[in-house]
């Protein structure tokens, strides 16, 4: 892949700038074993979520009270819970909930943050002042508490949790996109496009926004780690996906009661959350080091 | 130019007021506009239409929305946040009782995370890219990624049930509960005030585990930020100059580095404090800690919106106040802004 896109080629358009920026990344990535680990874990998670029915050895919802509280063994990799359900199968299906939560929040938050930030930075003046003031206000809200109140008002459920988390997580993206847009709008190629008579909308979406995407993607990846934790907290409080859905946070909440005698019921879902969140942090860190020279660790 | 400072101060105060107002609007919308049937939640689904209508009027839901907001605002300014369904008390009274417990927990956590996190971040910066730096990086990465409520459960099983090193859930053992008349509401302070060392040590046993677990997630952030602040300073000429004149590492840290990163650190600590108050909500449930988090969760179970919104409002307001304070710290502590004013 890197052979096809020589990185020394002069950058003319934003699209090719992104592509040619990707080439050396693969090279550097191979020298970041820890970061690669993160990528690998996310890949496994994605596979588990996509092919859950093929991978999970048992039905995640079928109860078998004779087999309740079996410790982890070869037939039940992560043991069974109070209803005799196979915890490993539930974790595999739970990956679907986790992934879809993350994707939904990211798909809501990414475009909103990007547009608010880019418009703010590009237009400037009063628009900028008003948008950023609004962003600052939302940024100063305590996210978990607000999500909690929001979920309480709308009724518990995965959809509410997604909206609640999205409401408070776009400002960070907007801030970042604005900072990028402020730099990009003064570059020569934007000035050139302007001279050619490109309309403001064209400048905004074809020339400026694409250049802000790499750092927005990095920030979104780092955000995902936080989203998992907030979503799990809401699940733990009973405000996320409802039982019997195998949501990881809710599994900890119900397993907590049996913790003293059957540790695996609560420990396993927690490990799943920890590993997933850790992987997103690692990937985000690595991407930042690779994509953003200002943050590079030497 | 004293005016500059004052002007800046008024500007920030104005921002704080706007933010608080926005918080009020949001809680109002969540509490009064979003719920599909707030009356039904109180009188029950099967209430007869007359009772339903009476409650609707009592709640003021027949009024236009702006009037409802005005009533919400004025009663709030008079310190009236409504009555909690669960306890039957005014919500303000409940919150005043629960808040000290949360405050005590979050404060101890912020102290622990600072005492460990700041030196760890500095050491990591001094020994950049060595194994020490790597260890610090792993510690802070895991801290960023760990679900704090799960960590609490695991901690209880290991250190309370398994090793019996610490006290279990609650602020003190049951036999000591309620013996100390609350003065500040902070049990550690109150027990010392009356000289009850048994309660004090018992309370220490109970608070240490939740505080440490809460502190860990904040420490991750503090360590990371301290490391990058320190790295920034280590490249500056004044550090080289101090080294050249033979100052020891300890002297460089205390005499030169700390004053230069103090302002940034205060900001980070203020933010962490806010996050800790929030994190306390889930931690409290695990440890049966009778603070705002537990109060709000109990309210959640029965859909008591008054109590939930009041809790949201209190934590939100403190969160914003802390942001404001950290902004002020820049104005007050940073000599560079002071030089401009002279």
From TrEMBL, chain A:
Location relative to the cell: Cell membrane
Membrane topology category: Multi-pass membrane protein
Domain ABC transmembrane type-1 per the UniProt entry, residue ranges: 99-284
Chief location: membrane
Pfam families the UniProt entry points to: BPD_transp_1, OppC_N
Entry's transmembrane regions: 34-56, 97-123, 144-169, 189-208, 220-242, 262-284
Keywords per UniProt: Cell membrane, Membrane, Peptide transport, Protein transport, Transmembrane, Transmembrane helix, Transport
BP GO annotations: protein transport
Record InterPro entries: BP-dependent_transpt_permease, MetI-like, MetI-like_sf, OppC_N
A Gene Ontology molecular function term of the record: dipeptide transmembrane transporter activity
Cellular component annotations (GO), alphabetically ordered: plasma membrane
Family per similarity comment: Belongs to the binding-protein-dependent transport system permease family.
Protein name: ABC transporter permease subunit
Phylogenetic classification of the source organism: Bacteria, Pseudomonadati, Pseudomonadota, Alphaproteobacteria, Hyphomicrobiales
TrEMBL record, chain B:
Gene3D superfamilies: MetI-like
Membrane topology annotation: Multi-pass membrane protein
TM region positions: 12-34, 105-127, 148-167, 203-222, 261-287, 307-333
Record domain ABC transmembrane type-1: where: 99-326
Any GO CC annotation of this UniProt entry: plasma membrane
InterPro entries: BPD_transp_1_N, MetI-like, MetI-like_sf
Pfam family, one: BPD_transp_1
Compartment(s) of residence: Cell membrane
UniProt keyword list: Cell membrane, Membrane, Transmembrane, Transmembrane helix, Transport
Keyword Nuclease attributed: no
UniProt KW Membrane keyword: yes
Example of a GO MF term: dipeptide transmembrane transporter activity
Family: Belongs to the binding-protein-dependent transport system permease family.
Protein name from the UniProt record: ABC transporter permease subunit
Organism: Endobacterium cereale
């Amino acid at each position: 892949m890197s052979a096809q896109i020589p990185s020394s080629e002069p950058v003319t358009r934003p699209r090719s700038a992104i592509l040619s920026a990707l080439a050396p990344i693969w090279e550097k990535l191979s020298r970041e074993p820890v970061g690669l680990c993160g990528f690998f874990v996310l890949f496994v998670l994605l596979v588990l979520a996509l092919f859950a029915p093929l991978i999970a050895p048992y039905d995640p919802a079928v109860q078998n009270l004779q087999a309740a509280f079996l410790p982890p063994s070869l037939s039940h990799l992560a043991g069974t819970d109070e209803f005799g359900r196979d915890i490993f199968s539930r974790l595999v299906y739970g990956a679907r909930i986790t992934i879809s939560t993350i994707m939904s929040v990211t798909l809501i938050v990414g475009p909103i943050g990007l547009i608010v930030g880019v418009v703010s930075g590009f237009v400037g003046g009063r628009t900028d002042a008003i948008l950023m003031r609004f962003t600052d206000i939302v940024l100063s809200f305590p996210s978990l508490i607000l999500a909690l109140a929001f979920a309480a008002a709308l009724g518990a459920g995965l959809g509410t949790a997604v909206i609640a988390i999205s409401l408070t997580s776009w400002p960070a993206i907007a801030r970042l996109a604005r900072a990028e847009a402020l730099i990009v709008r003064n570059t020569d190629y934007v000035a050139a496009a302007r001279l050619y008579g490109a309309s403001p909308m064209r400048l905004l979406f074809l020339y400026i926004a694409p250049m802000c995407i790499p750092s927005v993607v990095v920030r979104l990846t780092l955000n995902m780690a936080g989203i998992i934790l907030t979503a799990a907290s809401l699940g733990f409080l009973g405000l996320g996906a409802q039982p019997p859905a195998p949501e990881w946070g809710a599994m900890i909440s119900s397993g907590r009661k049996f913790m003293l005698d059957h540790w695996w019921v609560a420990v396993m879902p927690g490990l799943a959350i920890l590993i997933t969140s850790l992987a997103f942090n690692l990937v985000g860190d690595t991407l930042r080091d690779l994509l953003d020279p200002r943050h590079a660790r030497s | 130019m004293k005016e500059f400072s004052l002007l800046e101060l008024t500007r920030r105060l104005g921002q704080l007021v706007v933010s608080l107002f926005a918080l009020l609007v949001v809680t109002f919308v969540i509490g009064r506009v979003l719920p599909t049937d707030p009356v039904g939640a109180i009188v029950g689904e099967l209430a007869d239409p007359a009772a339903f209508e009476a409650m609707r009027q009592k709640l003021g839901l027949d009024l236009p929305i702006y009037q409802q907001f005005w009533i919400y605002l004025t009663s709030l300014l008079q310190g009236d946040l409504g009555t909690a369904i669960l306890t039957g008390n005014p919500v303000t009274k409940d919150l005043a009782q629960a808040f000290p417990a949360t405050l005590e927990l979050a404060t101890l956590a912020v102290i622990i995370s600072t005492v460990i996190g700041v030196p760890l971040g500095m050491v990591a910066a001094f020994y950049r890219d060595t194994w020490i730096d790597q260890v610090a990086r792993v510690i802070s990465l895991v801290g960023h990624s760990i679900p704090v409520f799960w960590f609490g459960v695991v901690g209880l099983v290991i250190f309370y049930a398994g090793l019996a090193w610490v006290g279990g859930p609650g602020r003190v053992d049951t036999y000591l509960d309620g013996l100390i008349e609350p003065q500040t509401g902070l049990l550690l302070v109150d027990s010392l005030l009356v000289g009850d060392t048994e309660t004090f040590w018992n309370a220490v046993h109970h608070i240490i585990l939740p505080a440490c677990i809460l502190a860990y997630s904040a420490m991750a952030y503090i360590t990371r930020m301290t490391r990058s602040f320190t790295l920034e300073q280590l490249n500056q000429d004044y550090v080289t100059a101090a080294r050249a004149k033979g100052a020891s590492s300890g002297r460089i840290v205390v005499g030169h580095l700390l004053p230069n990163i103090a302002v940034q650190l205060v900001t980070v600590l203020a933010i962490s404090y806010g996050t800790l108050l929030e994190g306390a909500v889930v931690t409290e449930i695990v440890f049966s800690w009778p603070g705002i988090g537990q109060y709000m969760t109990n309210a959640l179970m029965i859909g008591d919106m008054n109590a939930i919104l009041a809790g949201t409002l209190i934590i939100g307001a403190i969160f914003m106040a802390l942001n404001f304070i950290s902004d002020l710290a820049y104005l007050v502590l940073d000599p560079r802004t002071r030089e401009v004013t002279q």
